[in-house]
Structures are given as structure tokens and as C-alpha cells.
Design a protein that fits this description.
By secondary structure, the chain is α/β, with parallel strands linked by helices. It has two domains: 150 residues, Rossmann fold, CATH 3.40.50.1010; 93 residues, Orthogonal Bundle (Arc Repressor Mutant, subunit A). The protein is 39% helix and 18% strand. The chain has eleven helices and eight strands. The strands form two sheets. A six-stranded parallel sheet has the order 3-2-1-4-5-6, sandwiched between helices. The protein has a two-stranded antiparallel ribbon with strand order 7-8. Helix 8 crosses helix 9. The protein is elongated and about 70 Å long.
């Protein structure tokens, strides 16, 4: 029999998500991808978004949120003379009410980075015997909050950050594997330099992405001695990359690093019949006339 999935409710501090992503990573939230992520962990029955939507940038996000849920709580301060943010208080109140009123919810998923939420996380775990997962933005998430949770995830993941650089690096390596001479090898330093030059990419980010591929086991790093220097050579695990969806087998043709141009295929046109050459008419030979003597 299939194991029954735990029921979950999610509470999202959208101000934390949106503003932190924009300031730190210059990106906007991908709500659909995140919902797919949390639904792999539990059967999410309820999702509520909290934010002060009087902010012009956030107000534009409402239509996007409505594609997934209508439970949107505007936490705008009703006092126009006060700048106090009510988002945390309103979100906390909703979480406590849910915990008291609903015994069927097994998992509480919070998207926030604020340390103020560690007390409600501890309450849900210790008193209500609930599992609590915390999502937050990397670089803007409280370590105390993470340590209190049953489990936590920081976004964006390394894959989200480095995916464009992964593609550049792997295309370069694949091309080199098909074109290197027997006495040549693929090195860490040359890979970083060639990718940064070819794509006009940030060298530090290319280096970090290549190091991430190595740490994840997608590329093996070997140290060899050459001319009294230590050279780091690379060996790529293509099967693992294909299995994890980071490389498409059909595209592994070794030519991806070169900009291709479409081949022009000549199209055969219907040939019009050649005009017949004008027939040469024989002019009648002039008769010789003999003068009478």
C-alpha cells in the first residue's frame, strides 16, 4: 500500500522573498517552481501569501500570485502616519490560529528569513508535535530560525545560481574532448579562462560554478606534475550529468562551443525548356551566269 502523504499548509512572507531576491540576486521569485518543490515533500492543501502590497513593485505581483492561490493577505499599515510593518505580526497570528483550529495539518511550511519566527517554530514542534520546514533567501535568513526548524532550504540553490555557467563550462569541455590532441589535457585554469573569454562571463562566477560541479561529483579533479608545477586536470562524468538532467545526450556532439550557421541547401527549381537554337537556313546558291560572247 502506498504511504499516506503528510498534509501541509504554507505561509509565505512575500516581502522577504521578493525584496531579498531582487536586492541580492537581481531576480524575481519563481512561485511555480517553488510550489513544485514543496509538493514533493508533502500534500500542500493551503497556501497563504503575506505582504504590504501598497509597494508598487509588490502590487504588480498580485496577478502572478493569483495563478496559484486566492489566499493573499495585504498587511498594509492602516495608519498613514506610521511606518510600522505589520507583516510579521499578521503572519504569526495566522499560523497560531491554524495550529489551534486544524489538527489534520501535519507540516507547517514557512517562507521567511526573520528570526522573530523561531518561537512559533519551536511552539509548533514541541507543543503541537508538527513538522516545520523553513524556506528563506540565501544571505537573508536567520541562522537561529534555521537551527530551530525540522528542516530548512535556502534559495536560490547552487543550481539556480550557476546553471547558465554550468552550460558554458560543459559545452566548452565537450568541444575540447572532441578536438584535443593526444598530448593535451583539459585543465581547471584554462577552462575558466576560455569560458570567461568566449562568453564574456564573470571569471569569479565561472570559477565558482566549475568548483561546484567538482564538489557535486560531476567533474573529477586530478592533480598532475608538469614542468615542476602542479596542474589540475578535469575528467567529466557525462552519465551522471545526463541522469540528473544537466546535460542532454542528443546535444553532446562536440560542436556546441562553436557558433553554428545554418547550412544553405540549394533548392532545385523547375528548369524551363531551353529555347531551340534558330535553325540555320541554307541560302540557295547563286546561279552562275555566263556572259554571252
Amino acid at each position: 500500500m502506498k504511504k499516506k502523504r503528510m498534509r501541509a499548509a504554507a505561509f509565505i512572507d512575500y516581502e522577504h522573498w521578493y525584496i531579498s531576491m531582487e536586492k541580492i540576486y537581481h531576480k524575481k521569485p519563481d512561485i511555480g517552481a517553488w510550489l513544485d518543490m514543496i509538493n514533493e515533500r508533502a500534500d500542500v492543501r493551503e497556501i497563504t501569501f503575506f505582504a504590504d502590497f501598497s509597494n508598487e513593485s509588490l502590487s504588480k505581483e498580485i496577478s502572478k500570485i493569483r495563478e496559484y492561490t486566492n489566499k493573499i493577505v495585504d498587511t498594509k499599515n492602516p495608519n498613514p502616519h506610521s511606518e510600522k510593518d505589520f507583516t510579521d505580526f499578521i503572519m504569526l497570528d495566522n499560523i497560531y490560529q491554524k495550529a489551534y483550529a486544524d489538527d489534520k495539518t501535519d507540516v507547517f511550511i514557512l517562507f521567511t528569513g526573520d528570526a522573530h519566527f523561531y518561537s512559533v517554530v519551536a511552539f509548533l514542534k514541541a507543543i503541537c508535535r508538527k513538522q516545520v520546514g523553513v524556506y528563506g533567501i540565501k544571505g537573508a535568513c536567520s541562522s537561529q530560525l534555521k537551527s530551530t526548524a525540522s528542516w530548512w532550504v535556502e534559495l536560490p540553490t547552487d543550481l539556480d545560481i550557476f546553471k547558465p555557467y554550468y552550460d558554458m563550462i560543459l559545452k566548452n569541455i565537450r568541444y575540447l574532448e572532441h578536438n584535443l590532441k593526444p598530448d593535451q589535457s583539459i585543465t581547471f585554469r584554462n577552462t575558466v579562462q576560455s569560458v570567461a573569454d568566449h562568453y564574456s562571463a564573470d571569471k569569479e562566477k565561472v570559477t565558482a560554478a566549475l568548483q561546484s560541479l567538482i564538489e557535486s561529483g560531476y567533474i573529477d579533479k586530478n592533480e598532475t606534475k608538469a614542468y615542476r608545477k602542479t596542474v589540475i586536470t578535469l575528467k567529466t562524468n557525462w552519465d551522471k550529468l545526463i541522469a540528473d538532467g544537466l546535460w542532454v545526450a542528443e546535444a553532446a556532439n562536440g560542436n556546441l562551443f562553436i557558433k553554428k550557421t545554418a547550412e544553405s541547401v540549394p533548392v532545385k527549381s523547375k528548369q524551363s525548356p531551353k529555347p531551340k537554337a534558330p535553325s540555320k537556313r541554307r541560302t540557295p546558291a547563286k546561279r552562275k551566269t555566263t556572259k554571252a560572247k
